[in-house]
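Posting this for the archive.
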Amino acid sequence: MLNLEIINIATEDLRTKGFSEQEVQQVLAKVTEIMNQVELESLDKAILIEGVPETLRALKARGLKVGIMTNSCREYAKKVLARFCLEKYVDAVGARTDVERPKPSAEHAFYVLKLLDVSAEEAVLVGDHWLDAECARRSGLKFVLVGTLEQDMEALKGYEYQVANSIMDIVNMV
């Protein structure tokens, strides 16, 4: 199960067992703190997908805005971008910790769109996970799948999307 699913089930379970909303929020705050800590401890294991710098550079050269929507915490996202010298290509970052309901919720996408000052009709969500596809569907964004999904393909049923075999294909697709 995804962390998001586990947290949702645990939250509902706590409420069902009579925990007050304040107690539930305290538990969620502690869970978030632990998740952030684990993400930051794994920073040195982060790897750069081949072609990302070239793709981002090409997108920016075309005058496009680039936003990152991640289910990681903001500090981790910023540190990864800095580690790989990518922050100069990114106009906005929307992390899990910036929104009440992260992806696949449309709230997360709308948050990044607002930061970029663009509409859903002007944007494309590029992702490699069914959560990305579901977020795109819920928010009315066009979706480009990079690679193949080995997870649940249910999110893509009945949904129009394009497939990029590699990240570098994105430049020619947008």
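The longest strand covers residues 142-146. The helical segments are 3-16, 21-41, 52-61, 74-83, 106-116, 130-139, 170-173.
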